[in-house]
Specification:
about 325 residues; alpha/beta; Rossmann fold; UDP-galactose 4-epimerase, domain 1; seven-stranded parallel sheet; two-stranded parallel sheet; 10 helices; about 40% helix
Protein backbone atom coordinates (compact mmCIF):
# COMPACT_ATOMS: atom_id res chain seq x y z
CA UNK A 1 0.00 0.00 0.00
CA UNK A 2 1.23 3.49 -0.81
CA UNK A 3 2.47 5.69 2.01
CA UNK A 4 1.46 9.13 0.75
CA UNK A 5 -2.20 10.07 0.51
CA UNK A 6 -1.71 13.82 0.43
CA UNK A 7 -4.85 15.59 -0.70
CA UNK A 8 -7.31 12.89 0.30
CA UNK A 9 -10.10 14.10 2.52
CA UNK A 10 -11.56 11.95 5.28
CA UNK A 11 -14.64 12.66 7.36
CA UNK A 12 -14.64 10.87 10.73
CA UNK A 13 -17.71 10.72 12.95
CA UNK A 14 -16.92 9.96 16.58
CA UNK A 15 -13.51 11.60 16.19
CA UNK A 16 -13.34 12.50 19.90
CA UNK A 17 -13.70 8.86 20.97
CA UNK A 18 -11.03 6.21 21.42
CA UNK A 19 -11.13 4.89 17.86
CA UNK A 20 -11.73 8.24 16.21
CA UNK A 21 -8.68 9.80 17.83
CA UNK A 22 -6.34 6.96 16.84
CA UNK A 23 -7.73 6.88 13.30
CA UNK A 24 -7.31 10.66 12.95
CA UNK A 25 -3.65 10.37 13.99
CA UNK A 26 -3.01 7.63 11.47
CA UNK A 27 -4.76 9.45 8.62
CA UNK A 28 -2.83 12.65 9.33
CA UNK A 29 0.43 10.70 9.22
CA UNK A 30 -0.53 9.43 5.75
CA UNK A 31 -1.15 12.97 4.49
CA UNK A 32 -4.94 13.12 4.65
CA UNK A 33 -6.95 16.22 5.39
CA UNK A 34 -9.01 15.05 8.36
CA UNK A 35 -12.42 16.44 9.27
CA UNK A 36 -14.21 15.41 12.44
CA UNK A 37 -17.98 15.56 12.79
CA UNK A 38 -18.91 16.94 16.21
CA UNK A 39 -22.16 17.94 17.85
CA UNK A 40 -22.50 21.44 19.23
CA UNK A 41 -21.98 21.18 22.99
CA UNK A 42 -21.57 23.86 25.62
CA UNK A 43 -18.34 22.14 26.69
CA UNK A 44 -16.89 20.07 23.82
CA UNK A 45 -15.21 16.84 24.88
CA UNK A 46 -11.93 16.99 22.97
CA UNK A 47 -9.63 15.31 25.49
CA UNK A 48 -8.64 12.47 23.14
CA UNK A 49 -7.85 14.83 20.26
CA UNK A 50 -6.49 17.78 22.23
CA UNK A 51 -3.04 17.17 20.71
CA UNK A 52 -4.58 17.20 17.22
CA UNK A 53 -6.51 20.46 17.47
CA UNK A 54 -5.24 22.73 14.74
CA UNK A 55 -4.41 19.74 12.54
CA UNK A 56 -7.93 18.31 12.25
CA UNK A 57 -10.89 20.43 11.17
CA UNK A 58 -14.06 20.06 13.21
CA UNK A 59 -17.38 20.24 11.39
CA UNK A 60 -20.79 20.67 13.02
CA UNK A 61 -23.13 17.75 12.56
CA UNK A 62 -25.41 15.37 14.42
CA UNK A 63 -26.43 11.81 13.54
CA UNK A 64 -29.94 12.73 14.63
CA UNK A 65 -30.18 15.56 12.09
CA UNK A 66 -30.26 14.60 8.40
CA UNK A 67 -29.82 18.15 7.13
CA UNK A 68 -26.70 18.70 9.24
CA UNK A 69 -25.12 15.54 7.81
CA UNK A 70 -25.82 16.60 4.23
CA UNK A 71 -24.38 20.04 4.99
CA UNK A 72 -21.25 18.51 6.51
CA UNK A 73 -20.66 16.23 3.54
CA UNK A 74 -21.27 19.07 1.09
CA UNK A 75 -18.74 21.18 3.01
CA UNK A 76 -16.04 18.51 3.31
CA UNK A 77 -16.42 16.72 -0.05
CA UNK A 78 -14.83 13.61 1.47
CA UNK A 79 -13.06 10.82 -0.37
CA UNK A 80 -13.58 8.55 2.64
CA UNK A 81 -16.17 8.52 5.43
CA UNK A 82 -15.62 6.62 8.67
CA UNK A 83 -18.75 6.25 10.79
CA UNK A 84 -17.45 5.58 14.30
CA UNK A 85 -20.01 7.63 16.23
CA UNK A 86 -22.52 5.73 18.34
CA UNK A 87 -24.04 5.35 21.76
CA UNK A 88 -21.40 2.68 22.25
CA UNK A 89 -21.75 1.53 25.86
CA UNK A 90 -23.65 -1.76 25.93
CA UNK A 91 -24.79 -1.31 29.53
CA UNK A 92 -26.29 2.12 28.86
CA UNK A 93 -28.22 0.79 25.90
CA UNK A 94 -30.55 -1.09 28.27
CA UNK A 95 -31.48 2.13 30.08
CA UNK A 96 -31.46 4.23 26.90
CA UNK A 97 -32.69 1.88 24.16
CA UNK A 98 -34.46 4.50 22.04
CA UNK A 99 -31.53 6.90 22.01
CA UNK A 100 -29.23 3.97 21.19
CA UNK A 101 -31.46 2.98 18.28
CA UNK A 102 -31.69 6.54 16.99
CA UNK A 103 -27.95 7.25 17.12
CA UNK A 104 -26.33 3.86 16.56
CA UNK A 105 -28.88 2.44 14.11
CA UNK A 106 -30.80 5.19 12.35
CA UNK A 107 -27.83 7.55 12.63
CA UNK A 108 -25.84 5.28 10.34
CA UNK A 109 -28.75 5.20 7.87
CA UNK A 110 -28.97 9.00 7.84
CA UNK A 111 -25.25 9.24 7.11
CA UNK A 112 -25.52 6.65 4.34
CA UNK A 113 -28.33 8.58 2.73
CA UNK A 114 -26.42 11.84 3.00
CA UNK A 115 -23.49 10.16 1.29
CA UNK A 116 -25.75 8.80 -1.46
CA UNK A 117 -27.05 12.29 -2.24
CA UNK A 118 -23.89 14.36 -1.68
CA UNK A 119 -20.82 12.14 -2.16
CA UNK A 120 -21.73 8.95 -3.99
CA UNK A 121 -18.13 8.38 -5.13
CA UNK A 122 -16.80 8.40 -1.56
CA UNK A 123 -15.84 5.23 0.30
CA UNK A 124 -17.71 4.49 3.52
CA UNK A 125 -16.59 2.50 6.57
CA UNK A 126 -19.18 1.38 9.12
CA UNK A 127 -18.04 0.44 12.62
CA UNK A 128 -19.93 -2.78 13.13
CA UNK A 129 -19.47 -4.80 16.31
CA UNK A 130 -18.95 -8.32 17.60
CA UNK A 131 -21.91 -7.60 19.90
CA UNK A 132 -24.05 -8.36 16.85
CA UNK A 133 -23.16 -12.04 17.29
CA UNK A 134 -24.45 -12.01 20.87
CA UNK A 135 -25.69 -15.50 21.70
CA UNK A 136 -23.21 -17.08 19.36
CA UNK A 137 -24.13 -19.91 17.00
CA UNK A 138 -20.57 -21.04 16.32
CA UNK A 139 -17.08 -20.30 17.51
CA UNK A 140 -14.93 -18.63 16.41
CA UNK A 141 -17.16 -16.10 14.70
CA UNK A 142 -16.44 -14.93 11.15
CA UNK A 143 -18.11 -12.85 8.45
CA UNK A 144 -20.71 -15.56 7.77
CA UNK A 145 -21.77 -16.19 11.38
CA UNK A 146 -25.45 -15.57 12.13
CA UNK A 147 -26.30 -12.55 14.26
CA UNK A 148 -28.16 -12.95 17.58
CA UNK A 149 -27.76 -9.65 19.48
CA UNK A 150 -28.34 -9.59 23.22
CA UNK A 151 -28.64 -5.85 23.88
CA UNK A 152 -30.29 -2.78 22.35
CA UNK A 153 -26.79 -1.74 21.28
CA UNK A 154 -26.27 -5.02 19.43
CA UNK A 155 -29.70 -4.74 17.82
CA UNK A 156 -28.93 -1.20 16.61
CA UNK A 157 -25.58 -2.31 15.20
CA UNK A 158 -27.29 -5.14 13.29
CA UNK A 159 -29.70 -2.59 11.78
CA UNK A 160 -26.79 -0.38 10.71
CA UNK A 161 -24.91 -3.36 9.27
CA UNK A 162 -27.82 -4.41 7.05
CA UNK A 163 -28.48 -0.80 6.05
CA UNK A 164 -24.90 -0.70 4.75
CA UNK A 165 -25.32 -3.95 2.84
CA UNK A 166 -28.61 -2.69 1.38
CA UNK A 167 -27.15 0.66 0.23
CA UNK A 168 -24.10 -1.10 -1.20
CA UNK A 169 -26.21 -3.50 -3.23
CA UNK A 170 -29.02 -1.09 -4.14
CA UNK A 171 -26.97 1.93 -5.19
CA UNK A 172 -23.54 0.49 -6.04
CA UNK A 173 -21.82 2.49 -3.31
CA UNK A 174 -18.46 1.59 -1.78
CA UNK A 175 -19.49 0.63 1.75
CA UNK A 176 -17.59 -1.77 4.00
CA UNK A 177 -18.44 -3.08 7.46
CA UNK A 178 -15.70 -3.78 9.98
CA UNK A 179 -17.05 -6.30 12.48
CA UNK A 180 -14.53 -5.53 15.18
CA UNK A 181 -14.21 -7.46 18.40
CA UNK A 182 -13.38 -5.71 21.67
CA UNK A 183 -10.45 -3.37 21.29
CA UNK A 184 -9.17 -1.34 24.19
CA UNK A 185 -6.52 1.25 24.98
CA UNK A 186 -5.39 3.90 27.43
CA UNK A 187 -8.04 6.17 25.85
CA UNK A 188 -10.97 3.90 26.68
CA UNK A 189 -13.83 5.57 28.55
CA UNK A 190 -14.26 4.95 32.26
CA UNK A 191 -17.66 3.29 31.75
CA UNK A 192 -16.04 0.27 30.06
CA UNK A 193 -15.07 -2.66 32.27
CA UNK A 194 -11.49 -2.86 31.01
CA UNK A 195 -10.76 0.77 31.86
CA UNK A 196 -12.64 0.41 35.15
CA UNK A 197 -10.33 -2.48 36.05
CA UNK A 198 -7.16 -0.72 34.89
CA UNK A 199 -8.03 2.48 36.75
CA UNK A 200 -9.15 0.58 39.86
CA UNK A 201 -6.01 -1.54 40.06
CA UNK A 202 -3.81 1.52 39.57
CA UNK A 203 -5.72 3.28 42.36
CA UNK A 204 -5.24 0.30 44.69
CA UNK A 205 -1.53 0.14 43.86
CA UNK A 206 -1.14 3.83 44.74
CA UNK A 207 -3.14 3.46 47.96
CA UNK A 208 -6.00 5.65 46.76
CA UNK A 209 -8.68 2.98 47.28
CA UNK A 210 -8.90 -0.56 48.59
CA UNK A 211 -11.26 -2.30 46.17
CA UNK A 212 -13.09 -2.21 42.85
CA UNK A 213 -16.71 -3.22 42.20
CA UNK A 214 -17.67 -5.28 39.16
CA UNK A 215 -20.80 -7.03 37.93
CA UNK A 216 -19.51 -10.43 36.87
CA UNK A 217 -16.16 -12.03 36.12
CA UNK A 218 -17.37 -14.77 33.78
CA UNK A 219 -17.95 -13.25 30.31
CA UNK A 220 -15.20 -14.03 27.82
CA UNK A 221 -14.09 -11.60 25.12
CA UNK A 222 -11.59 -11.33 22.29
CA UNK A 223 -9.57 -8.27 23.37
CA UNK A 224 -7.12 -6.39 21.16
CA UNK A 225 -5.33 -3.03 21.06
CA UNK A 226 -7.34 -0.20 19.48
CA UNK A 227 -4.69 1.50 17.26
CA UNK A 228 -4.23 -1.77 15.38
CA UNK A 229 -7.97 -1.97 14.73
CA UNK A 230 -8.20 1.54 13.34
CA UNK A 231 -5.51 0.50 10.87
CA UNK A 232 -7.91 -2.25 9.71
CA UNK A 233 -10.58 0.41 9.13
CA UNK A 234 -8.31 2.29 6.77
CA UNK A 235 -7.16 -0.85 4.97
CA UNK A 236 -10.76 -1.89 4.36
CA UNK A 237 -11.26 1.21 2.18
CA UNK A 238 -8.08 0.80 0.11
CA UNK A 239 -8.99 -2.40 -1.77
CA UNK A 240 -10.69 -2.38 -5.20
CA UNK A 241 -14.20 -3.36 -4.08
CA UNK A 242 -16.14 -3.12 -0.80
CA UNK A 243 -16.17 -6.11 1.54
CA UNK A 244 -16.94 -6.85 5.19
CA UNK A 245 -14.21 -7.91 7.60
CA UNK A 246 -13.91 -9.35 11.09
CA UNK A 247 -11.15 -7.79 13.19
CA UNK A 248 -10.03 -9.94 16.13
CA UNK A 249 -7.09 -11.60 17.83
CA UNK A 250 -8.56 -15.12 17.68
CA UNK A 251 -8.02 -15.54 21.43
CA UNK A 252 -10.53 -15.27 24.25
CA UNK A 253 -10.10 -14.24 27.87
CA UNK A 254 -12.54 -13.74 30.72
CA UNK A 255 -13.09 -10.61 32.77
CA UNK A 256 -11.48 -12.61 35.59
CA UNK A 257 -8.38 -13.07 33.40
CA UNK A 258 -8.25 -9.30 32.86
CA UNK A 259 -8.49 -8.65 36.60
CA UNK A 260 -5.79 -11.20 37.39
CA UNK A 261 -3.46 -9.83 34.72
CA UNK A 262 -3.93 -6.25 35.95
CA UNK A 263 -3.14 -7.11 39.57
CA UNK A 264 -0.23 -9.28 38.49
CA UNK A 265 1.17 -6.38 36.46
CA UNK A 266 1.40 -4.18 39.58
CA UNK A 267 2.79 -6.96 41.74
CA UNK A 268 -0.33 -7.77 43.79
CA UNK A 269 -0.77 -11.56 43.53
CA UNK A 270 -3.73 -11.90 45.91
CA UNK A 271 -6.62 -9.93 44.48
CA UNK A 272 -9.82 -11.73 45.45
CA UNK A 273 -10.36 -9.61 48.58
CA UNK A 274 -9.97 -6.45 46.55
CA UNK A 275 -12.77 -7.15 44.06
CA UNK A 276 -16.43 -6.92 45.07
CA UNK A 277 -19.25 -8.22 42.93
CA UNK A 278 -22.22 -5.87 42.79
CA UNK A 279 -25.43 -7.01 41.06
CA UNK A 280 -26.27 -3.42 40.09
CA UNK A 281 -23.61 -3.71 37.37
CA UNK A 282 -25.18 -6.83 35.87
CA UNK A 283 -27.10 -6.58 32.58
CA UNK A 284 -30.56 -8.00 31.84
CA UNK A 285 -28.94 -10.18 29.17
CA UNK A 286 -25.26 -10.64 28.50
CA UNK A 287 -22.97 -12.19 25.93
CA UNK A 288 -21.10 -15.11 27.38
CA UNK A 289 -18.37 -15.84 24.86
CA UNK A 290 -16.95 -14.00 21.87
CA UNK A 291 -13.96 -15.09 19.81
CA UNK A 292 -13.30 -13.85 16.29
CA UNK A 293 -11.71 -15.44 13.25
CA UNK A 294 -9.61 -12.76 11.49
CA UNK A 295 -8.48 -14.99 8.62
CA UNK A 296 -10.18 -12.96 5.87
CA UNK A 297 -8.67 -9.67 7.09
CA UNK A 298 -5.25 -11.31 7.23
CA UNK A 299 -5.53 -12.72 3.71
CA UNK A 300 -7.26 -9.79 1.96
CA UNK A 301 -5.86 -6.82 3.90
CA UNK A 302 -2.58 -8.11 5.32
CA UNK A 303 -3.88 -7.16 8.76
CA UNK A 304 -2.81 -8.88 11.98
CA UNK A 305 -3.52 -8.02 15.63
CA UNK A 306 -0.04 -8.05 17.16
CA UNK A 307 -0.45 -6.82 20.75
CA UNK A 308 -0.92 -9.72 23.13
CA UNK A 309 -3.42 -9.80 25.97
CA UNK A 310 -0.95 -9.24 28.83
CA UNK A 311 0.68 -6.39 26.89
CA UNK A 312 -2.69 -4.71 26.42
CA UNK A 313 -3.50 -4.95 30.12
CA UNK A 314 -0.08 -3.54 30.99
CA UNK A 315 -0.47 -0.59 28.60
CA UNK A 316 -3.79 0.36 30.20
CA UNK A 317 -2.70 -0.06 33.82
CA UNK A 318 0.56 1.85 33.27
CA UNK A 319 -1.32 4.74 31.65
CA UNK A 320 -3.63 5.04 34.66
CA UNK A 321 -0.70 4.80 37.06
CA UNK A 322 0.87 7.78 35.28
CA UNK A 323 -2.38 9.76 35.28
CA UNK A 324 -3.10 9.12 38.94
CA UNK A 325 0.48 9.85 39.96
CA UNK A 326 0.28 13.25 38.25
CA UNK A 327 -3.08 14.17 39.73
CA UNK A 328 -2.51 12.61 43.13
Amino acid sequence: MASDYTGRRALVTGITGQDGSFLAEQLLEKGYEVFGLVRRLSTPNTQNIHHLLGRVQLVDGDLLDQASLENAIRQVEPDEIYNLAAQSFVGASFSQPVVTGEVTGLGALRLLDAMRHRADKARFYQASSSEMFGKVRKSPQDESTEFYPRSPYGVAKVYAYWACVNYRESYGLFISNGILFNHESERRGMEFVTRKIAHGVASIKLGLTDHISLGTLDPRRDWGYAPEYTDLMWRALQIPSPEDFVGATGETHSVRDFVEAAFRHVGIPEWTQRVRLDPKFARPADVDHLCGNPQKARERLGWVARTRFDQLVGIMVDADLRRLSRTG
